[in-house]
Amino acid sequence: xxxPAIKPxxxxxxxxxxxEIDIPxxxxxxxxxxxxxxxxxxxGASAIQVGTANFVNPRxxxxxxxxxxxxxxxxxxxxxxxxxxxx
Length: 87
Known about the structure:
Layout: H1 7-20, E1 26-28, H2 34-43, E2 47-49, H3 53-56, H4 60-74
Parallel strand pairs: 1-2
Helix pairs in contact: 2-4
């Protein structure tokens, strides 16, 4: 199982690990746009990986990064690190 089907479980795993130990976590599973990426970051991921979405849209990773940058500017957030694990 991969792609969007695994996202709810992947988010939960990131959340659980982030609450238990203080290590960098890479969020993987179902990230297709910047909103998905931000969900993983808010749950505690310090980095994300875009996988399956690249088969559908080869620019998916670039669009995720652009979307995150735009979000940070619009919300006047000084950096992505300020969002890690704030849920």
